[in-house]
Amino acid sequence: MPEVDKPIILIILDGWGIAPPSRGNAITLARTPVFKKLINTYPTFSLQAGGESVGLPWGEVGNSEVGHLTLGAGKILYQDLPRINRSIADRSFFSNKVFVELCQNIKSTQSQLHLIGMVSPGGVHSYHEHLYALAELAQAQGLNKIFVHAILDGRDTPYNSALGFIEELETNLAKLGVGKVATLSGRYYAMDRDNHWDRTAKYYQALTTGHGETAAAAGAAIKNYYENKVYDEEITPTVVTQDGKPLTQIQNGDGIIFFNFRADRARQITQSFVLGNFKKFDRGVKLQLSVATMTEYERDLPVKVAFPPEVVHNPLARVISEANLKQLHIAETEKYAHVTYFFNGGNEESFAGEEHLLVPSPSVTSYDQKPAMAGREITHKLIAALREGSYNFYVVNFANADMVAHTGNLPATIKAVEFLDEILGQVVAAALEVNGTLLITADHGNAEGLINLQTGTIDKEHSSTPVPLIIVASELEQKVAVNSVVTDDLSQLKPAGILADVAPTILKLIGLPKPKEMTGLSLL
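Predicted structure:
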């Protein structure tokens, strides 16, 4: 039976990462007697919190959404870019049901396949390797009428880099023996997200009617734009022609694959093709098309989705709920969605026995004006709840280290860290008073690196550094981890796990079995 008389408290010190001492490390510059005592008294681990360990591309910095999602899910949820990359690497991409069925439909009617998206290695909205894989897949499915409608970047890549990317694309298509670049457009037109429908309309007309600037070849068109000081992002929708006529036009019966994986800037052009009751501009009669998108751009959009969102069936909060245990999720406004929606695996509704407590963030123009933020109010409410004894599990976010570090103000961030150390002492004392167990961790780093040591400039952004995990309980005192701390410098500690290991560790402490969906491992 679960030991329901022993509450478990998960404390998330948002933005508290591990890095060697430096002139920009607010955590090691701060006075933190409580934290230092904890890491030398209780089992302490270093956890990977960025890159592939949280489902992001290699080396990419962690973030609060992914961090809380991983902490709550107990598994790595691969985000869109690495998820698609992995499917290409293991070849499952080439048997993706959505892509294969669309290609077979087109083949049966001898129609055309149009691949629409940004041709860029930027990895923010799209990735050029995904386009190459789609062309390979279509060729393997026996299609020979394949057209690329290339959107040009210039924002997540150098402003004048599209020519090289288009030349690389055409080389790849030539090797396959199928596929041609049919149109070009800067993202300014093709990927508007701010309801500038005149831009979207201009792009739509180029694709469907052949109206727009014209050129005999894609590369020549880009060179001409560069000569006139018009660069990638702002290149006007341009139609590639052959013998004075458009190479192709999208028409009834054709298939479209929108290959951007990020949704926000792909919605408007996709809606223009697929919505029945469309009134943003006069598109003429709606074309009858087979349409697929790489990822889900919008719920209820009438398209097939090749990589739909992964569903977290058994997040930690559900497992605790189904064991008839009560739980309380606490945060201030800035991080409230993170301890509710994201921690619960993207579930909008709370589970049975789960309560939420929102503490308003202070009304200041910048959080360096109040480094304590709403931390003291959160602490008071948490301690009151612990003494009342109504809940078996608590998840609490303290936003200070992250939100104050985002201001770039090093002295204020040091104050935020020292404040956190102070209230951590109060929370630990209150938890031990009621025979509780605390797990003190973070979702990602930030406060440990406010100065770029190579350039000397202020660094306000997240990092890919590891984060701490300290397990505090009376019975664990002086039971330090095998590879635990020998000094106060946690950066000397080798990472022993990942964020996905926290939920299984909590379940082991409670005495509940780990669901099969959780691939993380208990650290105890």
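Summary: The first strand starts at residue 8 and ends at 13.
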